[in-house]
What does this fold into?
Amino acid sequence: PEEQEVINRMEQGVVTAYVPTVTAESLAGYGPALASDAAVAKMESAMRAMRILGGGRPFDPVTTVTGDIREAVKRYSHEKKPLFFSSKEEKEWLESCRPGFRFKPAEDATKQAVLDAAVLGKYEKPQFVDVSNVMGTLANYHSREPTYLPSDSQAFMAKVRELLPA
It folds into this structure.
């Protein structure tokens, strides 16, 4: 009988009371699963977009947005790209990992570009061009493709110019 109880526990598990551990604070940072007009949804949508534009993940409560210190410093120092910090503590933590290193606030033009894209929803409208205008057609496609960075587009356009007859 005792052996059977052990086997039953191992095969069937045991009944335990469910004690939820989710709190409002533990859910901070996660946006709604569905599109919503609620103020919290708008704020979370903007925060998510700014995290991504700043080179981070949409949200990661364990490692924070800038979990990889070397990658964050490389992005900021060498690639000259902005970083987005979810909190003042996150910025202070990253600076404390590199003594003497300080992150400067983003330039006004960068702030405005992020604000336009993430909060205001402004974007460059696709321009309709004549089919015979190869460069215009390529620019049109690049403007609609989010995986093309401006530098990628410029390099591609330069290569196409080399290949096209004058």
The chain has two domains: 37-120, 124-166.
